[in-house]
Request: fold
Amino acid sequence: MTETDSARLLIIGPPGAGKGTQASRIAERYDVPAISTGDIFRANIKGGTELGKQVQQIIESGELVPDSLTNEIVADRLAQEDAARGFLLDGYPRTVDQVHALDGMLDGRSLDAVILLEADTDAVVARLMKRAELEGRADDTEEVIRHRQEVYAEQTAPLVELFSKRGILVSVDGLGTVEEVADRISDGLDAKLGLGTEVGANAKAGR
Ligand code: ADP
Reply:
């Protein structure tokens, strides 16, 4: 890729599929910032900001933050200079309304690819229960984890078909080691972005 090329990417999948872990690798490989709405919200809660106070209860109960608020935060973030050449969104959009809001923010420039990280519910619930022991995230109790899976199935899963119809979906099996999944994503993305060539080869060689 040259300086003027950019990659506008999303990663989507059920809570616990490993989006955050893979997002940082993809972002590094394609040299774009990883933008996670969950991380932005958690940083605000931790910092005790006004936004943090507004969203804390919602997040701890596993509900979605209202679209209007989430859209505004993403619009601000995408307007920053480092996102001008591309980005990887993680955890946004999560509703049909957010997809339309994002389309508006991109102003005719389309997304290049959407990575769907697939994993079945039992596997992701087990993973999140384990993470709860290690990290103690407030929304990682069994009840809230199950609720987040329902919210995903109802509100976010329908977006997959929408992106598939747009011809930009890259589906990847999220079960396996971090390395295995990362390789599947790279192969799928390179094929979708038409980068079987230099960038793919360079990135694989660690250049
Ligand atoms: P996970 O994928 O494990 O649910 P995230 O860090 O992506 O974790 O999100 C954590 C929580 O932050 C969500 O359950 C929700 O309350 C809130 N959140 C994150 N992104 C969005 C979004 N795009 N729209 C609404 N709420 C969001």
About this structure: The first strand starts at residue 7 and ends at 12. The chain has one domain: 7-205.
